[in-house]
Amino acid sequence: xxxxxxxxxxxxxxxxxxxxxxxxxxxxxxxxxxxxxxxxxxxxxxxxxxxxxxxxxxxxxxxxxxxxxxxxxxxxxxxxxxxxxxxxxxxxxxxxxxxxxxxxxxxxxxxxxxxxxxxxxxxxxxxxxxxxxxxxxxxxxxxxxxxxxxxxxxxxxxxxxxxxxxxxxxxxxxxxxxxxxxxxxxxxxxxxxxxxxxxxxxxxxxxxxxxxxxxxxxxxxxxxxxxxxxxxxxxxxxxxxxxxxxxxxxxxxxxxxxxxxxxxxxxxxxxxxxxxxxxxxxxxxxxxxxxxxxxxxxxxxxxxxxxxxxxxxxxxxxxxxxxxxxxxxxxxxxxxxxxxxxxxxxxxxxxxxxxxxxxxxxxxxxxxxxxxxxxxxxxxxxxxxxxxxxxxxxxxxxxxxxxxxxxxxxxxxxxxxxxxxxxxxxxxxxxxxxxxxxxxxxxxxxxxxxxxxxxxxxxxxxxxxxxxxxxxxxxxxxxxxxxxxxxxxxxxxxxxxxxxxxxxxxxxxxxxxxxxxxxxxxxxxxxxxxxxxxxxxxxxxxxxxxxxxxxxxxxxxxxxxxxxxxxxxxxxxxxxxxxxxxxxxxxxxxxxxxxxxxxxxxxxxxxxxxxxxxxxxxxxxxxxxxxxxxxxxxxxxxxxxxxxxxxxxxxxxxxxxxxxxxxxxxxxxxx
Length: 671
Prior knowledge:
- The protein is α/β, with parallel strands linked by helices and 671 residues long.
- The protein has 24 helices and 20 strands.
- Helix 16 packs antiparallel against helix 17.
């Protein structure tokens, strides 16, 4: 129970107050009312996430931050008579009841589903809110017998403000209601100043379940009211957000077209172009990034391709694509889970192209392939020792001693984190940092031997130091482990740019969760997490371009559990309250949406309201998709541009059937 209470307090502090809610009655109510009692038992662990949750009958309990914003906007007071339309599980009614019990207020709630009304009534009674009255009925017609109301809150989206509800507002009364299309609404506040005088204020974009009733939507999706809005006429400005997206979208040619990359020339002068992906197993994302990267390399002089992959594994690839001699005898790269993320046909095709492209370039102008990540600690230790054996055997001996305490865990670094909790392993941290320092102190001497080899060894030493901290702190939880990992990846990118000179330019391939500015997502707002995209904007400003990718449906290569087998899974169609559904409803199968273009100012402003965005990594669990793969974000704040593929397909992992007997032994995947 204490843990649940802490989660509730943290929700209010990080998800409600931090978003600007200041009304003390609202904050106090949300601190007091146990949301876990208003969700299904299997959803309790998600009760204090800032997201809607299913409650049956295809309805949801509303997102806490939106509920708080609505109650604050309605200026609910302790002496007010309040009507809530769409009681659902009873959570909002309980919040209103908590405010009302501080004075002489009364709360009435209407729910059209008898089963939900009954369960809401029971929950409210059990929690001591017996003075909150719930009935089954058509909420669009209000509760005339108890009118007038000082406040009316509507927890569903209607095509317009129902006249019956306006009539039931007291003079001076406030109503807050989502109004708009079935999947896309604007939060509207209506204040009644006289018998026929109403003030209307439009607020945030939101997405609620439809308001079904005589003065709302019909069950079949048509408007119940007789005054249907006419269809959009040619030349008429777009009326809905999907129409605005369609107007602003630049259709993309086929992925195999040489013209595909041309649309991205506008970012050719940037120092860093970050290309995202909405999953780690979608072919179209890899192929699109390859096409864009080829264009940036050929036409704009980019010489760094930095990817969300381990440095030692990527170093094997780099030797192949830049025609560099190999180092120590080594296994083919990317053998560990999730191998399909980089050992797939799309990546192999790009690497072959890069290998051929570099053949015609002088060594100093060849484009390299580098890993930013830090999981392969064992491979990094081996690479450092191999390098020192070549250039400084005495230093190699000292390094072996320093790395000795890590040796038992090289094959399974996560085990080190568990062991570190028991104490006695602090010397490892000091040892690996000392080794990194020792290597860097000899920078000039070693760099004279071979600059590329020194860069590789130095980065591996940094990786070991970061990985030691990462695997130690990951068992404490919180944002520290994520922040350490992304900070390490950013610093690796910065070190590459510095090593390659002031004119060097880099393309980054990483997941949307890494390259979209974390400050514009739940990651940064509620979990204090940062990422590469945020750090690039802070360091490079307008010289960094952040480009996200998305899809509506199709297939994806993913596992069900960590270290599980790869499966080709069906991607569920995007949720109605997500950015992805807006893009799907725009009706353009492939497009680029430039969110910074001056001509797209209107759609950018319209998209600024936070919505759900889907994130699929190497794990995909469709059955828990809302809680495990969706997060709230502000798309135009995250990204400078958005690349959309309405339907996508899974990557094809490399297997024996892709063996290449015609290629030299230096081919990195060595099938």
